[in-house]
Amino acid sequence: MSSWPTEIRLSKDRRTLHIAFDDGASYALAAELLRVESPSAEVQGHGPTQKKTIPGKAEVEILKVEPVGHYAVKLTFDDMHDTGIFGWDYLRDLGETGAAKMQAYLDALAAQGLSREPRRRG
Fold first, then answer.
1. Residue 95 — φ and ψ, nearest 5°?
2. How does pLDDT run across 51-108, given as a tens digit for each residue?
């Protein structure tokens, strides 16, 4: 059975999405994690072997949190990525497995010679 969110709140600095569920679980999800784990095809590809490692998102911010029906939210990030629909189960999964997913992301960046830091325009 799916749990239902009782609160979804964006931090003042727009870098953390706080979500609380009706069973008492609550999570603070970093904007960077949400961006690099976006459920969009742009990030996930069309199969498990197509997932993309997105560099340069250490400072990404969430501009908008919009409800999608009664089952999800659509997040708009300051890099204009807005195609991921984050269902309640997916947000809960990120809350429960976020640390491991973040470590896998850091490992993938390192393996590909990429950085979390955004490129500076010079």
1. -65, -40
2. 889 999 999 999 999 999 999 999 999 999 999 899 999 999 999 999 999 999 999 9
Answer whether 34's CB lies under 8 Å from 82's CB: no
Q: How far is the C-alpha of 83 from the C-alpha of 106, rounded, in Å?
A: 23
Tell me which DSSP letter residue 36 carries. Answer: H
The single residue listed with the structure tokens 């997913």 is: 101
Outline where the chain has alpha helix (H).
Answer: 31-36, 41-44, 88-111
Q: Strands (DSSP E) along 1-122, which ranges? A: 5-10, 16-21, 26-30, 62-68, 72-77, 85-87
Distances (CA, A) of 6 to 40, 94, 101: 24, 17, 24
